[in-house]
Amino acid sequence: MEKSRERVNILSDLDERILSQLRQNGRQSFRQLAQKLGVSPASVMQHVRDMETRGAILGYGVDLNYLALGYDLMGLIHVTIRKGALLGVQREIAKIPEVVSVYDVTGDADSLVIVRVKHRSELSRIVKRILKMEHVERSNTSIVLNTIKENYRLQPLEDIVQ
């Protein structure tokens, strides 16, 4: 079951400091974090567990270099969906393995789908699969030529300003 992505309660100063450290290196031990932050490992562990329980920390993962793995193409697919069917169609699209993200968006389309593929033929197959879905009216696909910046690690304002 997917954890909620809704807004969580306000984080404490220590929570923010822990998250800042985890964004830089999510593999740090509680002991390492505690040393850097000047608190006990038990305190760090309790704060991390609390943030996990509240849904502020959704999970842990690895940053992948898609190009090094052979995923040379990124496609941005804008999808227009008939009224009343948006969520169901988005859930079906999200099941496609090459789909990295599915977003509700404003503008001419209802949803933005981001895919990573190795070949144009795979992108074509995915677009056609989406267009065949019930309630999908149309799509408009763009191919990313160059990535100037891609950083999903949100930096707190105070980290950027310093």
The helix content, as a percent range, equals 25-40%
Q: Total number of β-strand segments? A: 4
**In one word, what is the shape?**
elongated
Main pleated sheet = 4 strands, antiparallel
- Kindly report the average pLDDT value: 89
Strand content: 15-25%
Q: How many helices in DSSP terms?
A: 6
CATH class group of the domain at 73-143? Alpha Beta
What radius of gyration results from the CA coordinates? 20 Å
CATH topology of the domain at 73-143: the name is Alpha-Beta Plaits
* Order of SSEs: HHHEHEEHEH
CATH architecture of the domain at 73-143: 2-Layer Sandwich
Strand-pairing-aware structural class: alpha+beta
CATH superfamily of the domain at 73-143: Lrp/AsnC effector binding domain/regulation of amino acid metabolism (RAM) domain
Low-confidence segments, ≥5 residues, pLDDT <50?
A: none
For the biggest β-sheet, the strand order reads: 2-3-1-4
Distance between the termini: 39 Å
Could you characterize the architecture of this molecule?
The protein contains 6 helices and 4 strands, in the order αααβαββαβα. It is of the alpha+beta class and 162 residues long. Among the domains are: 13-54, Arc Repressor Mutant, subunit A (Orthogonal Bundle), CATH 1.10.10.10; 73-143, Alpha-Beta Plaits (2-Layer Sandwich). A hairpin with a 6-residue loop joins strand 2 (99-104) and strand 3. Helix 2 (30-37) packs across helix 3.
Summarize the structure.
The protein is an alpha+beta fold and 162 residues long.
